[in-house]
Design brief:
The protein is an all-alpha fold and 60 residues long. 95% of the residues lie in helices and 0% in strands. The N and C termini lie far apart (46 Å). The relative contact order is 0.07.
Length: 60
Amino acid sequence: MKEEYKKYLPEISGAVIGVLLAFCFLVLGFFKTIFVIVMLVCGFLVGHYWPVFKKMLQNK
């Protein structure tokens, strides 16, 4: 069963995020949903690149 989860993790996570964004759109409206999407992207970028920045600062 773990192999199935590993194999289909992108599809499962995409479906869950899509449902959450649709619910957010219905509850909050268009502009707040756009704000949530922007915050998610910013959080992803910071979380993804933070170790790189941290490593660069430690090397100085």
